[in-house]
Amino acid sequence: MVKYIIRRVYLLLLTMIIVSIVVFLITEASPGNVARKILGPFVTTEQATSFLAQNGLDKPVYLRYFLWLFGSDWYAEQKSSLNLKRIVTSGGFQEWWAVGKQGNLQHWDLQEGNLVTVTRLSDKEVERRMDNSQWLTRQEGERYFWGVDNANHVVLWIKDGQKQSWTFNQGSWAKQNDAPVEYIPLQKGFIRGDPGLSLRTGRPVARTVTIMLRNSMILASIAFVVAMPIAILLGILAGIKEGSRQDRTLSIIGLAFAVIPEFVTGVFLILIFSIWLEWLPGAVVFGDLNPWNRLDMLVLPVLTLALVEIGYVLRITRASMVEVMRSAYIRTAVLNGIPYWKVIFGYAVRNAIIAPITIVMLHFNWLLGGIVVVEYVFGYPGLGKYLLDAALMRDINAIVAGSMIMVVVAVTTQLIADIVYPLLNPRIRYK
Amino acid sequence: MKKKDSYELPNEVASMYQRGKLSRREFVRLSSILGLCGGVAATTGGLFFPQPALAAMPRRGGEIKISLPVLRVTHPSQATWTPVSCITAPVAEYLTRVHGDGSVSGILLESWKPSTDLKTWTLNVRRGVTFNNGDAFTADDVIFTIKQWLDPAIQSSMINYLGPYLSSTDIEKTGSHQLKLHLKKARFALPVHLAEFAANILNHRTFEGDFIKAPHGTGPFTIETYRPGEVCIYKARPDYWAKGVDGKPLPYLDSIKFIDMGYDVTPKIAALKDGEINLIGLGGQEIMQAFKNDSRFISRSIETADTGVLRMRTDLKPWSDERVRLAFKNCQHREKILALAVENMGLLGHDAHIFPKHPAYCKKPIPPYDPEKSRALLNQAGYPNGLEVTLNYHADTYDHVRYAKVLKEDCLAGGFKVTLNPTPEYWDKWTEYDLGITQWIHNPIATTYLNVGYGVDQQGKPLPWNETRWVDSEFQQLLEQASGILDADERRKVMCKLEDVMAQRGGIGISYWTNKWWVIPENVHDIRIRADYLFELEKAWLS
């Protein structure tokens, strides 16, 4: 069993790597300009170019993947021969600084062609000193300097350069002689627990994703807890006697709920309970609140999810139950005079429930990703909606981080299902 | 208008008014641009929307909740569209404010005065204003911010407006609360440009490129929580410089909450009905439709210069032929388009990008739908069998989808076989399509668009937003002339010619101008929304 779990974990890591590569490639291949999507339609070509450069998106995809996975700080350190350090300020901002010779933290600024060294004294205080002696000279006589700017990049500045940079002024390409020409945005890398910044928000993905995951988990768990016992119970009731009136009724209801898509159920529920009866809010507005502060807002989304779930799982359970009830050992048990309820709950249900368990476990995963429709209809701030918005905006770090969570949830729920099987049916063993 | 104000007016404006050559309304507007009666213009404020006279005393306290995308904010001057500036606007104020009638009043400017040639502008910065971190607000902050706009490395949108006539060496500090701008060309629009959405004034002592790290503005609110993609909460500051009608400092509200509810409009409508939010920011036509019969809400509409521009690339075949362009323009059944695209809620256009409510607009007849003429023109241009063209537009823009369908039908008779290509990616390539519909939003002054959207650089190359690549020397000359004429009546004479040139030879068709709507619950008062969607909430109150 332990061996089996270890193999599963190993598989999980492999899946994550493959998924992240695929996501990078798909995002790379999909049409549209990221800068236009994020900065709005009226961004000029130059603003877009600058945005791409500052976010490291002008680099080739393999390098970006590499930096995303392993971090860009050591890559930047190698290029710039600086010693970099990440700190968190009292305001909660992540900041990268270069460690100077005396151990003080520094970054640099280019002001009207002059290099300014900014030394960090405390959270609130910095010391600014103009220091043009730090420029280095290359073979072509170009003066350059590698430094850290105040927006967490390692930057290559060129002074009096020959090369025209991309700055644009008054409708014509202006020759900008003193300008940053290369940016390396700093991040620790996914394997070191830093999935980077969201392009859309410019803030760490990890924080947002955690909140979105929590919200989705809450919604999915409540729907799961509400729907599954009801669905399995109704499925068993329907399956006890195939073709009976209760079987027909439950089957038809189950079928109806299973085939109506969530967005239809959702909209109908809003119309009935929110617009018509005015009992419940028809949209989810948390703002700065947490889901448990506004439980009334959860009712309709949970109901929408639960109805679809109930319909689906009910039918699976019923089918499984019907098959078990036809089997020889049930007939034998009944003929032996064992009480009917004991036959049902002692013999039939235990065997009938194996198939639904797989479905139920897979469905938790489906719930988490598949609730995107419900999240959209109700405006619920969850992971599915977050992923969809990220995909529409081509916010690569957010898409990958969201996908990684989905992979972990998918593999873990499957693992839990695998662990539960042998408990239900001792004939199942893992090597 | 107090008599004593007029002594400062440039002589010709004052004498025109005295001789009765200027209407009173035009006089107010004009003198406000000249910075001469900010106080008078300010009392005519609230003109963004026609509002009933204030009956009740505003009630203090409460929180207003607005659904609005909480976007990435770093450098306010870099904002490329209004939703970004909506986040910074409650904290960082503007120098001026443009009212619905085109008049301008000062916010952080107490007054301003141009020289008679409109080339030197003296700006007097408001005294007694402090930033929310306690720093005093002075001319240094204004100079610092203008330099940020003009610094090519910052990539500010403001450079599109100010860049052509101002550079960072043209700013002169003449006092702790006064500065002079020496423009390269005569421009009357300067005070209007200072009210553009990206023109928030920054604190020169603390601003280092990320506004969220040091959110120090002079505005009535401070940022309490900023969680992009989720929520942004503001609290009122107790020491804001402007006073309410009760004599105490504004704002009336205790706090503002912007809640990011994603892109789908359905949950927003449900939330507004439930009272979970008080306003939908960036709303569209469908919101107004949803609340049409609900008496608890007030729908307000204003006529704006928002328009779907049918634009043709004049540097690409077949649109490089003026006759083909004119033929296509003749296929617009304007009344039908206005009726079907925006349900008649707007004004008709005549292919010149000058809004009928702009001060210098020159009235022209609306061209009729004329397929015969269109076919004749196509014949002349060498397409006796008609033309097949592909029309690109944004698939999610409600009115463009309908506009395109009407065009497709009506153009058939005019000899054009139009293939429709709705795409969600329209904005990725909006300047690249040979034929498309582009949404242009409101601006108070026509010359602003004309300079930005149809202008050329010093070398005569089209500017980046000149999506039609139309370069016409007569047009450019008229535009340059118009941009330097302050008096709208004088400017109108030039605009009459300019509109003709644009309608005849330009690369655009403009069939309609659309209104904008807001649905506001009854208990929300004095909320001001600019035609470019920016909110002003310092005087808003809840009952």
What can you see in these coordinates?
The complex is a heterodimer of chains A (431) and B (543). Chain A is an alpha+beta fold and 431 residues long. Chain A folds into 2 domains: 42-190, no CATH class; 205-424, MetI-like fold. Helices cover 57% and strands 13% of the residues of chain A. Chain A contains 15 helices and 11 strands. In chain A, the strands form 3 sheets. Chain A has a 5-stranded antiparallel β-sheet, with helices on one face. In chain A, a hairpin with a 5-residue loop joins strand 6 (136-137) and strand 7. In chain A, helix 6 packs antiparallel against helix 12 and helix 13 (372-378) crosses helix 14. Among the domains of chain B are: 56-73 and 219-296 and 522-543, D-Maltodextrin-Binding Protein, domain 2, CATH 3.40.190.10; 303-515, Dipeptide-binding Protein, Domain 3 (Dipeptide-binding Protein, domain 3), CATH 3.10.105. Chain B is built from 16 helices and 22 strands. Chain B has a 5-stranded mixed β-sheet with strand order 8-9-10-1-11, covered by helices on one side. In chain B, strands 12, 13, 16, 17 and 18 form a 5-stranded antiparallel β-sheet that branches. In chain B, a hairpin with a 5-residue loop joins strand 2 (96-98) and strand 3 (104-106). In chain B, helix 10 runs antiparallel to helix 12, helix 14 (446-453) runs antiparallel to helix 15 (473-483) and helix 15 runs antiparallel to helix 16 (488-505). The chains are: A alpha+beta (431), B alpha+beta (543). At the A-B interface, helix 2, helix 3, strand 9, helix 8 and helix 13 of A face helix 8 of B.
Integer-rounded radius of gyration of chain B: 24 Å
**What low-confidence regions of chain B span 5 or more consecutive residues with pLDDT below 50?**
1-12, 37-53
CATH class descriptor name of the largest domain in chain A: Mainly Alpha
Assembly type: heterodimer
Number of domains of chain A: 2
Helix % of chain A is 55-70%
Name the strands of the widest sheet of chain A in spatial order: 1-2-3-4-5
- What gyration radius of chain A follows from the Cα positions, in whole Å? 29 Å
CATH topology of the domain at 303-515 in chain B: Dipeptide-binding Protein, domain 3
| Beta-strand fraction estimate of chain B | 15-25%
Average pLDDT rating of chain A: 82
How many helical stretches of chain A?
15
The level of helicity of chain B is 25-40%
CATH architecture of the domain at 303-515 in chain B: Roll
Total strands of chain A? 11
Instruction: Enumerate the strands of the largest sheet of chain B in spatial order, edge to edge or round the barrel.
Output: 8-9-10-1-11
Determine the most extensive contact between two protein chains.
A-B, 60 and 60 residues
Q: Mind telling me the CATH superfamily name of the domain at 303-515 in chain B?
A: Dipeptide-binding Protein, Domain 3
CATH fold topology of the largest domain in chain A: MetI-like fold
What kind of sheet is the major sheet of chain A?
A: 5 strands, antiparallel
- What percentage of the residues of chain A does DSSP assign to strands (E)? 5-15%
